[in-house]
Specification:
DNA-binding transcription factor activity, 13% strand, 19 strands, transcription regulation, alpha+beta
């Protein structure tokens, strides 16, 4: 409940902002009485853009209603009676509001908790500026907030000066009208008798001279006021531009970079809420300054006084329009990217968001967003503002979507949930480029006005590069193109230029990021693993990591040229390892049971120093997505000599029949996992429990077991055991037993399959 306690201590504008979070959509009383429960729930674990997670939101809504009802039931006494009725009413109200759309409740509460946390952090920073960072808020954030406070003061200062100018000008006009009235009186004196005329004329001329002198001085003063005000607004706009550069060109670009790296398995890019709050503050202040400049223009038109102010005001008006235009176009972003490997005829989703849409009331006339797929050349032409004649490189179904405003969070976004790429038009390929190296992008564009049609905007944004495939077999190579682009592209590049070669440490970082993400493990690639990969990539035998620090790897070496003596590339081999690990061996990698990145000679050197029966697991050099068991045992053909045996690699197909743990359990001559762990301690909890009970039709479920005879003549001189025939038979049996037909193997005890009581 710590956050709610701190939120209640907010003061001034921060307190008003916090109170504004609540209303009929979520009463503040519910926040108060269920504070501890609300703050302990996993709201962030639910992705509100994924419809399949709605059941989690439904469960949280039901729990919230139950907690409210429980709290109501425990109220006692006269005051408790009224509270009991109130809480019961809120329970019914929330159920009625969110039962049809539980995701909106999650969205609402996430927004409330985030905003409260931000307000508490900002208040803490203001109250103790001399102290270091508080609550982990970066110093940059403090600088941004301080700049906003400076802008607020400057904008308020110009507002005060503008009012002063307006009052002075209004008084000037009154006095000017008075001078005109005196002049009219002087003109009418001709009809008076001479004596009276002279007396009145002397008095009026004196008043006229005094007033004209005052008007002359006041006109100069007004001109100075206008000039000073315009110069102040010039300074404010300069600071606004600087603040906008920090937020849009630094922070937002960094968010987009994190989003791109997240496509390679990097950390999530983080919430856009704080960026939106900054952009909204910018929009608010820019708009206030724009209105001030327009009011000054109106005053100058109302009372023209020759001077340099008019030109300065024109310049200010042009500048403020440029600033607001840059902000609006820059904050039309893709919150959820389309998949970067995009298969035709397959449904996909994306979300675009206008960060300043709520603040500028764009939602009052909700704009429509259109999605189009374009190729690299069309993307280049678009960024050069060349006329592309609405060209596209394919047809996307369900490619139009109206932006929706979520009042609880203040977000304006368009959710494309059911897009599908019907067809793709490919360009002529260059040199050795394959179809899985060709990059496209999804263009999102919209048109809307702000300020009562004062300003019209045509906004566009491009997705991260996508590679279009038509068959799952292309996924491997397409992923390589995406990984290289995400990892090594430079901000602000020409679409979609990437370096042809990178340093080995750069590539290691990208491979490690991808591996940890796909295998869902904190255990990444060690320095020894990376040395092994370097040896494979560069056909080197050096074990010294320093030897690879300054080496570079080209795209061709990465995924065009096959490894020496193999029919696959470096990436294809590495991706095969990832696929095997994430589908079948994730738990064993996390346990540290798989060394993996070793060659046959390294395995032999390690095992020969250990007792017989010691084994290890390493990835196959010769087969994509293969893993082999190497173990040390006596040489049956030479007494007293020991040798290392290697099983033919297992692949995903093998593990879909029988798991690694079960296979290791089956092989009795495997005793210790390298260096000295009894195998049962490591693998037994993953083994399939024995099942001897009869199934419904009276048959006992069959089992397939791994069998290896060390003295089998199928072992070659190098200790390589060919399991191909054995595994083919196992697969045939497994596939046969899966068929619904009457079993034909019931009498064959060699496969442990027999009819009960036979």
């Amino acid at each position: 409940m710590a956050l709610w306690i701190q939120a209640q201590q907010l003061k001034g504008d921060a307190l008003h902002q916090m109170q504004a979070l609540y209303g009929q959509h979520f009463p503040i009383e519910v926040r108060h009485y269920l504070a501890q429960w609300i703050e302990s729930q996993p709201w962030d674990a639910i992705d509100v853009e994924k419809q399949q997670e709605e059941f989690k939101a439904k469960r949280l809504l039901e729990s919230l209603i139950q907690e409210l009802q429980r709290k109501a039931e425990h109220q006692m006494g006269e005051d408790g009676f009224l509270l009991k009725i109130k809480l019961g009413h809120y329970a019914s109200q929330l159920k009625s509001a969110y039962d049809p759309c539980p995701m909106e409740l999650v969205r609402c509460i996430k927004h409330i908790l985030y905003t409260e946390q931000r307000l508490v952090q900002e208040a803490s920073n203001v109250s103790s500026p001399g102290v270091g960072l508080t609550d982990g808020t970066p110093q940059k954030y403090q600088q941004i907030n301080q700049a906003f406070e400076e802008l607020r003061v400057m904008t308020q200062d110009t507002e005060n000066d503008l009012r002063k100018l307006q009052h002075s000008q209004e008084y000037f006009i009154i006095q000017y009208q008075e001078s005109l009235r005196i002049q009219a009186q002087l003109s009418s004196l001709a009809s008076l008798p001479p004596a009276e005329r002279v007396q009145r004329e002397t008095s009026l001329q004196s008043r006229k001279a005094t007033l004209e002198a005052w008007l002359t001085r006041e006109a100069n003063t007004l001109q100075k006021y206008r000039q000073d005000l315009a110069e102040k607004q010039q300074r404010t706009l300069a600071l606004l531009r600087k603040q906008q550069t920090v937020i849009v060109d630094d922070e937002l670009i960094q968010w987009k970079r994190r989003q791109q790296l997240a496509g390679n398995g990097g950390p999530a890019e983080g919430s856009l809420d704080i960026l939106q709050s900054w952009c909204e503050k910018l929009a608010d202040m820019i708009w206030q300054n724009r209105q001030q400049i327009r009011r000054v223009e109106h005053l100058t038109q109302q009372l023209p006084i020759p001077g340099p102010t008019e030109e300065l005001l024109k310049e200010l008006n042009s500048t403020v329009t440029d600033v607001i235009s840059a902000l609006v176009t820059s904050t039309f972003i893709i919150e959820k990217q389309p998949p970067q490997v995009l298969k035709t005829q397959t449904k996909f989703a994306a979300t675009v968001r206008l960060l300043v849409g709520g603040k500028l009331n764009v939602h009052m006339n909700p704009p429509q967003v259109k999605a189009t797929i374009i190729n690299e050349q069309q993307a280049k032409a678009l960024l050069k503002n060349e006329n592309t004649r609405n060209d596209s490189s394919g047809e996307i179904l369900n490619n139009n979507c109206v932006m929706e405003y979520h009042q609880t969070t203040g977000t304006l976004s368009a959710h494309f949930r059911n897009m599908s790429l019907k067809r793709i038009k490919r360009s002529d390929r260059r040199g050795a480029e394959s179809v899985t190296e060709e990059k496209f992008t999804v263009l999102f564009e919209s048109q809307f006005s702000v300020g009562g049609n004062e300003l019209m905007f045509h906004v566009k944004t491009l997705s991260l590069p996508v590679v279009v495939i038509v068959h799952g077999s292309q996924d491997n190579n397409a992923t390589a193109t995406v990984l290289w682009d995400n990892a090594f592209s430079e901000p602000g590049r020409v679409p979609f230029v990437v370096p042809d070669k990178v340093t080995w440490p750069q590539l290691c970082e990208a491979l490690n990021m991808k591996y940890k993400s796909e295998v869902q493990s904190d255990r990444g690639l060690s320095e020894e693993n990376l040395v092994f990969l370097a040896q494979k990539a560069f056909s080197s035998s050096s074990n010294n990591p320093e030897d690879y620090r300054n080496m570079t790897m080209t795209w061709s070496q990465f995924n065009r040229e096959s490894l020496p003596g193999r029919n696959f590339t470096f990436w294809q081999w590495f991706d095969g390892v990832i696929e095997l690990m994430k589908k079948h061996l994730k738990a064993h990698w996390n346990d540290g049971a798989i060394l993996g990145f070793l060659n046959k000679q390294q395995a032999q050197d390690m095992l020969l120093s250990k007792p017989n029966g010691t084994f290890l697991l390493r990835f196959s050099d010769s087969e994509i997505g293969g893993i082999t068991i190497a173990w040390v045992a006596e040489n049956p053909n030479k007494a007293g000599e020991r040798m290392v045996w290697n099983l033919m690699p297992f692949t995903t197909k093998d593990f879909s029949i029988r798991s690694l743990a079960d296979r290791i359990s089956d092989l009795n001559h495997l005793l210790f996992l390298y260096p000295n762990q009894p195998k049962d301690e490591v693998f037994s909890r993953y083994c399939t429990p024995p099942n001897s009970k009869a199934v419904g039709d009276g048959y006992v479920k069959p089992e397939i077991k791994q069998v290896v005879k060390v003295d089998d003549p199928m072992l070659d001189a190098e200790g390589e055991f060919d399991l191909e025939e054995t595994m083919d038979m196992a697969r045939q049996v497994e596939e046969f037993l899966r068929q619904p037909s009457e079993p034909q193997w019931s009498g064959q005890q060699s496969y442990q399959c027999g009819k009960k009581n036979d």
